Amino acid sequence: MVELRINEGESFEGFLRRFTKRVQQESIISEARRRQHFEPPSITRKKTAAAKRRKSVKATLKNM
Fold this sequence. Notes:
single chain, elongated, 72% helix, mainly alpha
């Protein structure tokens, strides 16, 4: 949970910028998107295997 306080003399825009940066550093948005829809472990494994295959094919085509 991100908790920030506005510093004295800090504008709202500055505070918002600092808040956004902190949320991105803690990857809260990406975690929420990932958890939005449940994905079984079998699907996750298939996706990672497919990504590895695509990457290896791309690397072999680049070396030709």
